[in-house]
Structure formats: structure tokens, C-alpha cells
Amino acid sequence: MSEGLVHLLQLLVSGVVTGGIYALVAMGFVVVYKATRVINFATGEFMMLGAFFAWTAMSAVQAPFVVALLVAVAASALLGMATERLVLRPLLGQRTISVIMVTIGLAAIFKGLAQIAWSGDYRSYPAIFPRAPIELGPILLPSRQFYPFLIAVGAIALVGLGFRFTRTGVAMRATADDQMAAFGMGIDIRRIFSLSWSLAAMTAAVAGIVVGIIGGISPQLGAIGLRTFPVVILGGLDSIGGALVGGVIIGVLENLAGGYVDPLLDGASLKEVVPFVVLVFTLMVRPYGLFGTREVERL
């Protein structure tokens, strides 16, 4: 196999791995929007807090990784539920833009609280996975990317199956399709909203842990939430499958740009710009995304 082909395959596989992680982050946006029609711009900060919850459990009390993961998910679920109940529920019936602005304010508050609690320093997780790289034929993947990718895919599958086959998932989908009809069928809309925020926070926590394992954590970790927003738009704001497809597309395009174009730009980085080029193009051509419903409005 030629060196050029191996390089291309390496970029493609690495892009799929990166895209799977992007997709998990995007799920935090999709879950809330799917049930409530609200874009949660605090998703990145929910990620960051979940990552710190797990890091604290592992570092402070020496909890095993699985236990720390469960602790972080449980704490994030309570945080998401409390956020919906105390901050967002009083805004029911208000204009969507008002709720979106509140989520932006929440992001700033969560970031400030994290800096107070954990300082602004970068932290690394203790060793969790074997250090040996994963060999896929001629392709090598760092273990700190491969194993988090498996966690991300597993989490996406669980959320997707939950939406498809559980009673709560069916209620969430019914609420997303028509809130008044769902209410008429006896579905407690307020309970569904609360569960949606709780599930989104849990998903974001797993995403934060996955990202933290790869690159460390700090209160700035939440910035990846906005970086992932093009994935959400490309796949469709209300599509779980779209988040996965959009994540893979963005991840592959980023890697190809970084591998072939960036070396020719004398220090410039097209890789950082590619997601937002895709965002603008998607909004111009197909504003509801690849798999989103056509009723999705432009913002």
C-alpha cells in the first residue's frame, strides 16, 4: 500500500473518530431541542461540569473510572433537572429568543462557578486506558482517542434506542411533534421538559468526560460546545441520526483540511474554519439540515 494512500486512510479514520465525539457533544443540543424547541447554548458548560465531576471523583476519592462516570452522570442529571425547574420553567410561554438568552447567561454563570471551585488550571485525568496505540492494519490510532470514541458511540446508541423504544422516549418524540396533541393524550409536558434537560445534561457530561480524557479539562472546555454547533445545524436540530452523520462529515472534512491544505498555508489553519464554512453553506442551502424537519426556523 502506497504511503499516500496510508496517509489518506489515516486522516479518514481519525476524522471518523473525531466526528463520533463531535456527534456526542451535538446530542446535548438535539435532545433539548427535540422536546422543547429551545437551543441550549449552555451545553458546553454542562459538558465542562460533568468532566469536573468525574475528575473530582477520580482524583479526590480515588474512585474507579466507571464509578466516577456514573457519579458525574447522576450529578449532571440532577443539575439539568434543577436548571429546568428553577430557571427555565418560569419562562414557559415566553419568546424563544428570551429562553436562548437565558441559556447564554447560564453558560457564563456555570463557567464562573467552575473557576471558583476548581480554578482556571488545566487538569488531566489519571491513566484510564492502556497506552499502546490501536493498530487497524497500517493505521495507528492513539488509545486516548480510540477508547473515548467507543464510549461516545455507546452513549449515542443508548440515547437513540431510548428515544425509539422506551415509553419516555415515545412521549418525548410525541411532545416534539405536537405539544398540544401530546398534552391531550395525557402526557405531562412539564415532566417531559424536565426529563429532556436531565437527559441532555447526562449526555453532555459523558461528552465532557470523553473530551477531557483526550485533551484535559478546564473551565474553558465549554467552548467546544459552540465549535460543535455546525454539526448540529448540518445534521438537523431535531435529528439524533443527523448528529451522528453531521459529526462524521465535519470530523472528516476537518482532518482532510488539516492534512492536505494547512501544510500549504504557512501557519494558517483552514481546519479551524471548515466547520463554520459548512455552517454558513448549510444555512444558505438547507437551513433545516440533512435530516431535520422543514419546520425548523432560521435563527
Structure explained in plain terms:
This protein has twelve helices and two strands. The protein is mostly helical and 299 residues long. The protein has one domain (3-119, 143-285): ABC transporter involved in vitamin B12 uptake, BtuC. It has a two-stranded antiparallel ribbon.
Task: Write a concise synopsis of the structure shown.
The chain is 71% helix and 2% strand. It is mainly alpha-helical.
- Please, how many domains? 1
Please identify, by name, the CATH architecture. Answer: Orthogonal Bundle
Biggest beta-sheet profile: 2 strands, antiparallel
Strand content: under 5%
Quaternary state, please?
A: single chain
Shape: globular
User: Which series of helices and strands comes N to C?
Assistant: HHHHEEHHHHHHHH
CATH class: Mainly Alpha
CATH topology: ABC transporter involved in vitamin B12 uptake, BtuC
Q: Could you estimate the helical fraction of the residues in percent?
A: over 70%
Strand order of the largest sheet: 1-2
Q: Which features would summarize this protein structure in a list?
A:
12 helices; 2 strands; 299 residues; ABC transporter involved in vitamin B12 uptake, BtuC; two-stranded antiparallel sheet; globular
Secondary-structure blueprint:
Blueprint: H1 3-36, H2 43-60, H3 65-88, H4 96-118, E1 134-136, E2 139-141, H5 143-165, H6 167-177, H7 179-184, H8 189-215, H9 223-227, H10 229-235, H11 240-261, H12 274-285
Antiparallel strand pairs: 1-2
Helix pairs in contact: 1-5, 1-6, 1-8, 1-11, 2-3, 2-4, 2-8, 3-8, 5-6, 5-8, 6-8, 10-11, 10-12
